[in-house]
Amino acid sequence: MSEIDWKALEAKYYMQVRQREPVVLVRGKGVRVWDDRGREFLDFVGGWAVNSLGHCHPVLVEALHEQAHKLIQVSNQFYSIPQLQLAELLIKNSCMQRVFFQSSGAEANEGAIKLARRYGKLKLGGAYEIITALNSFHGRTLTAAAATGQPKYNEPFIPLTPGFFYVPFDDIDAIKKATTERTCAIMLEPVQGEGGVNIPHPDYLKQVRAWCDEKGILLILDEIQTGLGRIGKLFGYQVGVFMAKEQCSVFQAGDHGTTYGGNPLMCAAAYAVVKYVIENDIPGNSLRVGQYLLTKLQHIKGEYPIVNDVRGMGLLAALELKEDIAQEVLMACLDKGLLINRIKPNLLRFMPPLITTEGDVDEAVGILEGVLSNIGYKR
Ligand SMILES: Cc1ncc(COP(=O)(O)O)c(C=O)c1O
C-alpha cells in the first residue's frame, strides 16, 4: 500500500477541473487495472475510449521500447520514418489521400477547421461558417469548444471563435435550412459520444454527404471517439490526426504546423497499434462483443424499470436511468471492482478496450446488475 496520500497531493497542486473517482491507478494489463492499494478493477472506461488494445499490450510496449531507444522527437523540419509509415498505413486503409498528425483530438479538429476555412477562402468565395450539431463534443481548445454544441463547454469562455452554427443532430432538414452561401463545412461525430452515445438513423450521414456534394461544401467527421474500430469499423484514429481528400488538401507551406505532432515515438506506437488492429480484425471483435454487451444491457433494462434506455454501437454503449443516480451506481460498481463512466447525472457510458471478451462483459454486467439490485431497483 502506498505511503503517500496522492489524492491530497492532487487537491493541493493540480488544477481542479474535474472531480476524480477515488482511485489511484498504478498498473494495467489487458482490460484490468490495479490501484495503489492492490485492488483489481475491470476497466470499462478504457482511458475514455482510447486504449484500444487494453493496457500495456505487448505490441505497443515493444514498439515504444524499440523506438524510444532510437529516436523520440525531431520536429517536422525533417523527414522521419515512423511518421511516413503510419501515414501510408492510414491512407491505404481509408478513403483519404492526405494526413497530418497532431497531439490531441482537439488539435486535430482545429486542423480540420483551419483546412475548411482555407478551402472556403480559396474555393468558395470566402465562405467560412461551419455547421455543427447540438450535443456534440469536439474538444477543449477555444475553437474546438466553439464548435461544440453544448453551452456548458463554451459559454464560460465567451467571446468564442465566431462562425459556428448548431443544429439538432440526426436532422438533415435542419442542416439544409442552416446552410448559406457563407457555409464552408458541416462537422459531425458519426455517433455522438460525450453528448450521450446518440446514434443517428442509418441514412443520416449519407444524406449529409449528398447535401455537401450538392452544395460543394466540406464534410468533417470527428472520429476521435468512434475511430479505430470502436464502433465496428476501422476508420479514424484516437491520437490526434486529421485526414483529407486530395482536392480538399489546400494547405500550403506555413499554413499549419505542430511541434510534437507526428513525432517518431508516437508514430511508431500508433503504427504498431493500427497494424495490429487491422491484421487481427479488432473492429470485428468490437462489433461482436459490442452486440453481446448491448444484448446484456437490454436484458437489464427488461429487469430493472429504473433503466430508461440502452443504446450502443460496437464497444461504445450507454445506459440511461430514469433518476439521477448514475454517480451512485458508478461508485457502487467501483466498490465491486468495475470502472465505468458517467456523462450525465442519469447516463452511464461503457467504452472498454476493443480486445474485451464476452467473458469480461459477463463479469461487468454481473457487477452492474448486482449493484442495481442492491440499490433496490429490481422489478
Ligand atoms: C468526438 C471527440 N472529439 C474531440 C475530442 C477531444 O479530444 P482530446 O481530448 O484528445 O483533445 C474528444 C474527446 O473525448 C471527442 O470525444
What is the secondary structure topology, with strand pairs?
Blueprint: H1 6-13, E1 25-29, E2 32-35, E3 40-43, H2 46-49, H3 58-70, H4 81-92, E4 98-101, H5 105-123, E5 129-133, H6 142-147, H7 151-154, E6 164-167, H8 172-178, E7 183-188, H9 204-215, E8 218-221, E9 241-244, H10 264-279, H11 282-303, E10 307-313, E11 316-321, H12 326-335, E12 338-339, E13 341-344, E14 347-350, H13 358-375
Parallel strand pairs: 3-12, 5-6, 5-7, 7-8
Antiparallel strand pairs: 1-2, 2-3, 4-9, 10-11, 11-14, 13-14
The structure holds pyridoxal-5'-phosphate.
Residues 48, 104-106, 109, 137-139, 189, 193-194, 222, 224-225 line the site of pyridoxal-5'-phosphate (PLP).
Describe this structure as you would to a colleague.
It is a single chain. The chain is of the alpha/beta class and 379 residues long. It folds into 2 domains: 6-56 and 281-375, Aspartate Aminotransferase, domain 1 (Alpha-Beta Complex), CATH 3.90.1150; 58-279, 3-Layer(aba) Sandwich (Aspartate Aminotransferase, domain 2). Helices cover 40% and strands 17% of the residues. It contains 13 helices and 14 strands. It has helices at residues 6-13, 46-49, 58-70, 81-92, 105-123, 142-147, 151-154, 172-178, 204-215, 264-279, 282-303, 326-335, 358-375; strands at residues 25-29, 32-35, 40-43, 98-101, 129-133, 164-167, 183-188, 218-221, 241-244, 307-313, 316-321, 338-339, 341-344, 347-350. It has a 4-stranded mixed beta sheet with strand order 1-2-3-12. A 4-stranded parallel beta sheet has the order 6-5-7-8, with helices on both faces. β1 (25-29) and β2 form a beta hairpin. The chain is globular. It starts with 5 loop residues before the first helix and ends with a helix. The model has no long low-confidence stretch (mean pLDDT 95). Bound molecules: pyridoxal-5'-phosphate (PLP). Pyridoxal-5'-phosphate is lined by residues 48, 104-106, 109, 137-139, 189, 193-194, 222, 224-225.
